[in-house]
Amino acid sequence: MSQINGIASEFARYIASRTPRGTPWTRVYDEMCSVARSRSFRGMGYTELSEAGVSLAITRLDRICQLLDQAWEQQSAD
Questions:
Q1: Cα separations in angstroms, 44 against 26, 56, 72
Q2: What are the structural domain ranges in the chain?
Q3: Which of 35, 49, 64, 73 has its CA at 20 to 30 Å from residue 42's CA atom?
């Protein structure tokens, strides 16, 4: 797994741990933005997350949505 994919997956797991499956999508998105704004994930803000493959642009959320689904699935399995 590349560094970029690893960081994106780790970010998704971090968000999944803070927002249980079934949380309304608007709250999940708000949480992702809050984490980026506060740099509470590895000290990374919007720019650093984007460079690591985590776009929070509404039109580019498909990848992070997939990763979040995987993270929630993993939580269910654990």
A1: 21, 13, 22
A2: 3-77
A3: 73
Residues 8 and 50: their CA atoms lie apart, in Å, by 9
For 41-70, b/e burial (b = at least 16 CB within 10 A) is beebeeeebeebbbbbeeeebeebeebbee
> In this structure, what is the dihedral angle of CA atoms 15, 50, 64, 41, given to the nearest 10 degrees?
-10
What residues have CB less than 8 Å from 76, skipping those under 6 apart?
A: 21
For 7-41, how does the pLDDT look when each residue is reduced to its tens digit (9 = 90+)? 999 999 999 999 999 999 999 999 999 999 999 99
CB contact at 8 A, 68 and 15: yes
Whether residue 36 contacts residue 44, with contact meaning beta carbons closer than 8 Å, is answered with: yes
